[in-house]
């Protein structure tokens, strides 16, 4: 028994294949999804999703969204996502370091929130690229 996984961003289908296991970041922690998982609708946080297929693991940076699980069909709607293989590790590292520095020196409520979101996005991309 396998899962049918479909990951969709507003501008493209990021992933559309079978998977044996999925691990994603939710707003309350990580969730592991195996075949015959109970039906569920959950919010996803920015982070790395890991997908086991064809005997190997693949990673993807997800920028928040929702996951719906029902009858071994997993549909994930994301604001934005990149497969680890699409991310340049050097660029991801530079973006992470810049976001980390910006986050540390951000002043004012709005700027702190923006800097933290940029940091979370950069961290997800870096972690996904390292998992490739």
What share of the residues does DSSP label as strand, in percent?
over 45%
- The residue fraction in helices comes out at 25-40%
CATH topology of the largest domain: ATP Synthase, domain 1
Averaged pLDDT: 95
**Secondary-structure arrangement, i.e. CATH architecture of the largest domain:** Sandwich
**Can you say what the CATH homologous superfamily of the largest domain is?**
F0F1 ATP synthase delta/epsilon subunit, N-terminal
Order of secondary-structure elements: EEEEEEEEHH
CATH class of the largest domain: Mainly Beta
- Kindly provide the radius of gyration, computed on alpha-carbon positions and rounded to a whole number of angstroms: 15 Å
Number of strands: 8
Report the structural category.
Answer: alpha+beta
Please state the overall shape, judged from the principal axes of the Cα atoms: globular
Task: Report the span from N to C terminus.
Answer: 26 Å
Enumerate the spans where pLDDT stays under 50 for 5 or more consecutive residues: none
Q: Total helix count?
A: 2
Total discrete domains: 2
How many strands, which pairing sense, and closed or not: the largest β-sheet?
Answer: 8 strands, mixed
């Amino acid at each position: 028994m396998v899962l049918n996984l479909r990951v969709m961003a507003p501008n493209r289908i990021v992933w559309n294949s079978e998977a044996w296991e999925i691990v994603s970041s939710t707003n309350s922690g990580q969730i592991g999804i195996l075949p015959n998982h109970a039906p569920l609708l959950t919010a996803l946080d920015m982070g790395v999703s890991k997908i086991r297929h064809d005997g190997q693991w693949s990673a993807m940076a997800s920028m928040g969204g929702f996951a719906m699980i029902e009858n071994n069909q997993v549909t994930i709607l994301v604001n934005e996502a990149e497969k680890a293989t699409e991310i340049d590790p050097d660029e991801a590292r530079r973006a992470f370091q810049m976001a980390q520095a910006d986050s540390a020196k951000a002043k004012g409520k709005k700027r702190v929130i923006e800097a933290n979101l940029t940091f979370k996005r950069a961290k997800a991309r870096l972690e996904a690229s390292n998992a490739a």
